[in-house]
Design a protein that fits this description.
The chain is an alpha/beta fold and about 290 residues long. It folds into two domains: about 140 residues, 3-Layer(aba) Sandwich (Rossmann fold), CATH 3.40.50; about 120 residues, Rossmann fold, CATH 3.40.50. Helix 1 crosses helix 10. The longest helix has 15 residues.
Length: about 290
Amino acid sequence: MLYYYANSGHKIGLDRVKRAVALLKALNDKGVETRLLVNDFRAGLAARELGLRDYVTIEGVMDIDAIADTGDAIIMDTPEDDRGRIEKYCSDFSHVFRFANSPEDEVRVSEVLFKPECSDESCIEALIVDSMYENESKEERVLFFLSDADYDKEILGHREFFQDSGMELLLGNYFFVKYEDELAELFERLHEAEEYEELLKTSSHIVTASGQTALEAQVCGANVVYINTGREEIIPLSVIRGLGIPVVEGFDKAAYDAVKQNQRSEKNLMLSAEEIANKVINKLKN
């Protein structure tokens, strides 16, 4: 069994869960038995909506071995401090994979690293997009998706950026109910979080502060603008810029107006989720 722990929550969103689902679906299709581990019930429901049936909730990275048995394989995608627990995991489990949390992150014990910019066989590419995202016919729509979480009400804090912008808002899974009423005043239309997949595929323009969503929208063929809010991000800015996606620093209205009419970048991800799954399988065989 391969267990994949993806850190999630109402302050950090679901980007790690989305790439987990993408990889696990590809592994399942190739006959690998897997299970997703997340931190909360809502993350599990979101995974189901994206096409992954089984998940288990755990408290955090320290509790992986409460679910996984000796000899199993694990993947860790989390910024949490494991307090040296990875040494035990590398001893107890047959294979340990870990997502790097920065370009400078290095192997700590004997684990295999997933890295956004991987140039040799010692690591595996961490830019993972679900194969269900593909270029479909588009509706003329400027869709804004901050992320699945806006705990500090960042959108409301930048009213002037959204006022009269003509944007439609895709709500996040962790948005508070009463918050939606306030947001309705700023946008042409609000879309429920459950519409995520359909709207990414069919929207002509997508503005987002989520690196994972920027990758998915790029694959879908949308004109993408990435808003760098300075929050912790699983996709480095260098990668986003390397894909030709315009980056706006903060909610700078003038900078956004200057790039929003740019033509869509033709650059795309080098590897599919299926190809990355094959790399994982090859590691599991060793």
